[in-house]
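Thread title: Can someone regenerate the structure for this chain?

I was given the following input by a collaborator and told the matching structure tokens would be attached. They weren't. Posting the sequence so someone can regenerate them.
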Amino acid sequence: MTTTGRVVAWAAGVVALGLIGVAVFVDLDSGDRIASVVGAVVGLAVAAYTFVGPSGSSGRRIRAGRGATVIDGDVSGSAVGRGSKVVGPRTAPRTGPRRARGGDDDVRVGPESKVVLGDVTDSALGDESERR
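Best answer:
Regenerated them for you:
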């Protein structure tokens, strides 16, 4: 469980204990009113967080420097980069199961770097490169 998840779980537990305490030690009617207000506030907070909070995707973030080439996937029979050429028959598409991808780790790529986060087959990558 993440730190945020732990904080939310503890806060929910404290609020629940507080509402039970009001219902037991004060009266049920007051507990009902307080629970209604707390529920409305929590509902609005969740709606606001969903609307303006971070995106729901937990995928990787890729940051690339100026002039960098980053491919997040498989490359087959392709020419990527300035002056690159691919000569000859096309490469047949890969059959069978795909290789497991690297996960959700963030990637930082320096300037003028070439990075492929997948399989490279029969391709020309980079400046002045050529596959015949």
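The beta strands are 62-64, 69-71, 75-76, 79-80, 85-86, 107-109, 114-116, 120-121, 124-125, 130-131.
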